[in-house]
Amino acid sequence: MKPGIKSKNVFFILVGSAIFSFGLVHFNMQNNLAEGGFTGITLLLYNLFEIDPSYSNILLNIPIFLIGWKLLGRVSFYYTLIGTFSVSFFLWIFQNWQFHIPLRDDLFLAALFAGVFIGAGLGITFRYGGTTGGVDIIARLVHKYWQVSMGKTMFLFDAVVITASFLTYINYREAMYTLVAVFVAARVIDFMQEGAYAARGAMIISSAHEEIADEINKRMDRGVTILKGYGSFTKQERDVLYCVVGRNEIVRLKNIIHAVDPHAFVSVTVVHDVFGEGFTLDENKQPIER
């Protein structure tokens, strides 16, 4: 392994690439569904000119690598190489040894499967520092030199590719289900990126803040941070409590607050990912296995 390259990251990038490739072959290609980005271009070339996606994926990404390797940084560039070449490898594997999954009569189900597999595969790959090359590198370059957001660039690129697919090899029904698959994939990617473990963060404003903090510490074994606040209306300084708890603990937290001060002001927000003691580390700063 080169310095900075973690074997755990490489393993999960390979897993993500395998899941992505399996979904592309067994749900997109078998059911004639298109896709956005460079993946959509490989499917376009396959259906128009019978060019194997496992080869076109690499050929399309070579010039992008040459342009974007400095932008990515050394470690990210290596992870991107691993992700891109492993996708091509697994595409070749699954095209030559594939299962027949009869879903042509239920394209909605095929689109859902395609979105879940592609989203999960890309989400795992992104979460561990990799990419599969392609449009995300272009989006970074456009953002750097023309200040256009990456999301807008990727959306425009996807729209162009899907439109081109609709005008060439897919019908209106397949185009609509392609949009369903793309939407589901985007949501799954967000879920994988934000973390499967969601928590709740509570901001508590109360004159009995010390008693509330003590009760949370004693009865829930959760830490509380005291922040300094200033009321714009009252023109008074107030102590504000901030506490993060698990989803299943939020009712207990509300009950504790209400028992101490029924008039406390409480704001609860969704925390998509949490790191640190009580969540990913125990009291001895050791990782908690989930």
Descriptive account of the structure:
- The protein is built from 10 helices and 4 strands; from the N terminus they run ααααααααβαββαβ.
- By secondary structure, the chain is of the alpha+beta class.
- 61% of the residues lie in helices and 10% in strands.
- The chain has a 4-stranded antiparallel sheet, covered by helices on one side.
- The longest helix has 23 residues, at 7-29.
* Regions with little confidence, pLDDT below 50 for 5+ residues: none
Query: How many helix segments?
Result: 10
Please state the overall shape, judged from the principal axes of the Cα atoms.
Answer: elongated
Strand order of the largest sheet: 2-3-1-4
Give Rg in angstroms: 24 Å
Structural class: alpha+beta
